[in-house]
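hey can u run this one w/ iron/sulfur cluster bound, need the structure tokens asap thx
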Amino acid sequence: MQPFDHRYREALSERSLKLTIAAKENGAKVVAVYCAFTPKEIIAAAGAIPVSLCAGSERPIAAAEQHLPRNICPLIKSSYGFALTDTCPYFHEADQILADLTCDGKKKMFELLGAIKPVHVLQLPQSADTEESVRQWSGEVEKILHLIQHITGKKATEDDLKQSIHRYNAFRRTVQRVFEVNTGAVPLVFGREAEAITDSGGFDIDLETRIREMETAVLELEKRAEDSAFMAEMQKRPRLLLTGCPTTNKKLLDIVEESGGVVAAMENCGGLKTAGMQVDTKKEPLTALAEAYLAVPCPCMTPNKGRMALLEKLISDYRIEGVLELTWQACHTYNIEAYSIQKFTEDRMGLPYLQVETDYSQSDTERIRVRVQAFLELLR
Ligand code: SF4
Ligand code: SF4
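ok here u go:
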């Protein structure tokens, strides 16, 4: 059985880095995004290479804390620390940063980041539900297009934009197909593996190859249904839905699957929160992109009703037995919304719920393991 582990993921990253460095030597530009609200379709259509920056390592946090307060979320500190110490190849290669104003910590961190690289701030509305918000976000999306065209010197035609939308729609549909192997009676892929299989490699430089590789991986995963030992093992495992902050650091995911559970579905950014998005190809491209991206159900928006609707669908589609919420320490948006998610999970869906608040260090790993094991026991 092919392992889809950290080595698989590292190979993807190395390949995409190599391709990007070669493209840069030939004059290509790299544009980085920090958040799921920014349409990467526009960056690619205007001839630049998109890359997502979202750090998950504890290593650069001490350096970040020389400029940032300690009591902000580890994702922000790690991202800033990598930039400050110039130890992240993705940040290093970036010529331009696009920064969505989401939570307060990120917003203020971006001001400091501007001293290291060019940062273009995107005025993200606080609500996705009004016509004014969509209009405002359409204006911001159009500004991105002009900025990237200026950087690359390439004009993106309507056709370029449509092709880019088609490519990203196909990529997201394939990511969804990977997770969907877990909708049957027995899940066929671990959450840790699904994350590795659906990784873009960092730089979105060759999405067609990634789509083909994911399709091959789906065939591999489907073959697991013929392996009776594997099926017997998976059948024993409680099926969890992981929700909450982006799973930039894998500590919780590892603990759950080492402790006998399986993360059958992930509602987090990069997982099914964003993979389910399909941009309307019949509408004018910039409007279609603005509408689709603004609807990402993130707690930075108020209200954020889309998250409950998505959770309800995933719980049903993936035959979920318990909901696990990951909250990075000092992430106020997710932490406050956790109260509503718990009520929704327990009262409306009738399922057990566990929230784990943690950071990127290993200091609480064993304490979390004990809580997760008790939760899995309850589900059994
Ligand atoms: S959870 Fe929200 S703020 Fe965080 S990356 Fe996703 S969309 Fe952005
Ligand atoms: S995890 Fe929370 S605090 Fe951290 S960047 Fe995302 S929304 Fe902001």
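The CA atoms of residues 134 and 291 lie 6 Å apart. anyway lmk if its weird
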